[in-house]
Structure formats: C-alpha cells, structure tokens
Give the backbone structure.
Amino acid sequence: MLSEKIIEEDKQGQAIVTLNKEGNTKKLFIESYGCQMNMSDSEIVASILSEEGFDTTPNLEDADLVLVNTCSIREKAEQTIRKRLQKYNRVKRINPAMKIGVLGCMAERLKTKFLEEEKAVDLVVGPDAYRDLPNLVREVEAGKDAINVILSKEETYGDVTPVRLNTNGVSAFISITRGCDNMCTFCVVPFTRGRERSRDPKSIVEEAQDLWNKGYKEITLLGQNVDSYLWYGGGLKKDFDKASDIAKATAVDFAKLMEMVALAVPKIRIRFATSNPQDMSLDVLHTMAKYDNICKYIHLPVQSGSTRILEKMNRQHTREEYMELIDNVKKIIPNCAISQDMIVGFCGETEEDHQDTLSLMEYVKYDFGFMFAYSERPGTLAAKKLEDDVPMEVKKRRLSEIINLQQKHSLYHMEKMVGKTVEVLIEGNSKKSDTHWMGRTTQNAVVVFPKGEEKIGDMVMVKVEDCTSATLLGTKI
Ligand code: SAH
Ligand code: F3S
C-alpha cells in the first residue's frame, strides 16, 4: 500500500511529497529539468522504483540512488545539468555507495558518451526505457554501469500510476501522448523522445477520475503535440493508415478525448499543452467552448512570424494560416487566452523576418510568451543543412525586442481585467507573502489576494483591483 506523506511546506505552499511504502528501505532522490513532460515522467519513475524498494527523499545527501531527468532542448539546458552532476559528484565523494543515474533527453542524445564523459554516472536511461529501471538498478547495485536508450513504438506507461511529486495537491499532470513526428528542423525532441504514440483514453479518464477522488482540482493533459492525439488501439501515429476499418472508425482524437475527460470529471479544471498550429482542429476549439471545465487558454507556439523562416523550420503552416487559426480561436472562444513560444535568430533570419515576428505579435497580442534565442542542436536537420549565421549580439537584441513587446501585451491583457471579478482556483501561498493566496483564472492569469477563511484547492471569486504585467491583485468577494 502506498502512502504519501507531506514532510515540508515551502513558501509557495508547495508541499514536497515523499513516497513512503511499507517495507521500502532505500532512498531515491529524483530531480527534473526541462518541460512538464519530464516532471510527469519522474512521477512515473518514482512509481516504478517504489516497487523496487525505493522511497523518495528530498535530501541529496541521504540518497542511495540519485536520478536526474534531463533536458536537451537548448545548449544552456545541458550545461545546467552538467553543473548539477558536479554537485552530485562532490556528494558521492563523501558517500561512495551512492549511485547516479541520468534519465530523459540528454541520456537519449548522448547515450554511452555519458558513461565515458561523466565518471560519476552509473546509469543512463532514455525516456522509453523506464520500465527497465528495476533491472538496470540491480545491475548498478552489483557494481556495473547500466544503460538502456531504446526508443519504443508502443510505450505510453498507460498502466503506471504516477507518484505525485512536488505537488500542491491541487494540480497534476496526465501524459497522453509520447514522442513527436513533426521534425521541426531546430528541435531535438523527435530524436530524444522518438516517434509519436497515444495512450489509451480509458486509462487517461481513469487517471483523471482517480485524481479527482484524491482531491485534485486541476489536470493538465500533456504531450509534445496534444492535438495530434489519436488512439486506434495502440501503436505509432504514423501507422494509423495501416489500421483496420473498425479501428479507424472507432478512433479517438484529441477533441473527443477532451470531451470524454470533461464529461467524466465535470468539476475538475482541464488544461492541456502543447498545441501545434497545423494539428489544432476546429473541433478542439468547439469542444473547449462547449465545456466550462476546459480552461480557456491555449499555448500555441508559432516560433516565427515569417513564412520564409517557418518553412525553413519545417513548421507545416504559413503566417497567414496561423493568423486564420488565431481568428478562429477568438471567434469560437472569445475569452480565450493565447500564449506563444518564439525563437529569434534562426538560420538566415533577416531583419525583415524579425519585423514579421513583431508584427505577428502585434496582430495576436499574446497573453503570455516563452521566448528563446536559437541554439543549434547537434543531429537536427538545421545543424546538418543550415548555417547558424545570426550573430549572438543580434540574437540578443532581437530577443529583448520581442520580450519587451510581449511584456507590453501581457500588461495590456492584465489591465483589461482590473475592475472585473474573476474565478480563481487557489494553488498556494503567494511567493511574496504568507498572508496572501496565489491562484489562477481559467485564462491562466496569476491572481494574488489577501487570505481569509478559504483554503488551498478552493474556487473563489476575486475582484481585481490592480495588476502588473504578470499578476492580478485583488480581494475575495
Ligand atoms: N512541442 C513541444 C515543444 C518543446 S520545445 C512542447 O510540448 O512544448 C519548447 C520550445 O523550445 C519550442 O516551442 C521552441 O520555442 C523552443 N526550442 C526548441 N528547440 C530550440 C532550439 N534549438 N533553440 C531555441 N529554442 C528552441
Ligand atoms: Fe519539437 Fe516541433 Fe515536435 S518544436 S517537439 S519537433 S512540434
């Protein structure tokens, strides 16, 4: 039997949850870097290892096994992990019995190189091989190095009940697809996470119901490309054409999946990430509009406002097609917030292309944004075929221009909310003050307000009185 024990509450009200299973004697310290998918995968890993005698610990120094779930998306992400490994190394010098494992995208990208380059690393496991962890850990405990970086056609971990780590007890992730078939030329993900496959909708709905029964109030359906979700009995998305007529006729797409979840847990808030413009169907938008419990927020990365650059990136749409999608979002879900991911300084990006990005941002007026300077990733098509020719100073200048514009737009949206009353799900303490709550609106805007009798997980109405570009400030009514 599993029991989750809350051992510490930090300033944000984020309870750090450790797993304690009867009979478990070994200690696992697990950390995640990068995307939400990695956070979710670490919860699957903790669950698999709990069957192998491991409880989790928040203290590195206490660990028998240290696992770091890694990110390869930009060079800087990999540098951060390398630094973290140095820290583990220092602890290992004091406790030589401690074993160190690398999981996730860097494990998949670097494979055996990790064991050669980082002497302290004992274990290397790619994103599709976590089920093999019990065997691999046994090998490591016997004094050998162990590695499994095989990518799978079927693995979705659909039957693994994740152990919720670092949870506030209010929001949880549910992974619905794995891998990505899009092959954007700048992106390392298709190489590190393999081909796209979807998880059985039944297991997704059951996980959502289970979370609701445990008191969770919000779920985020996760995938690299959720709109591409397609269940036809299992297997790779690219093999759908080969499926039987019955499998095709009864297939479940993302709009249908969301509807199933929305109906099965009618009071839970549903979010999803990430959407890809070319795969987002109007059905998805209509489903969002139809169900109150689906949050009115879409993270819709575009990467560039220039059709010429979009083509070089192998994004499957033009600037105009993206604008049309945005028009549809605004028409079908008038109160929907939209956010972007943007890359500046991609190969061959001219000043004119950059101006196209700025003008697209003006057109959409995104509520939020995540903006990056292009970082060449080994093995990608861009690294092989295109020249990383925009100088770093130019990348930095363009990046600060789009960040400034985004801030202006974020402020514009926040200011529009002042004077209005919004529904807020309380997630925990405000970062700055124990006497204030922090929560979010359906549009994902952060709201901070003075505490009263309410508690974490409550849905409350807040009158917005003031704002910054990132936060709404108000009073509960
Ligand atoms: N579909 C994925 C995208 C993962 S990568 C998802 O679930 O979010 C997240 C963002 O990182 C991308 O949208 C892109 O804006 C950025 N990114 C990816 N590769 C990059 C690179 N080589 N250099 C800079 N930014 C990159
Ligand atoms: Fe990467 Fe493009 Fe897929 S950004 S994760 S290849 S949609």
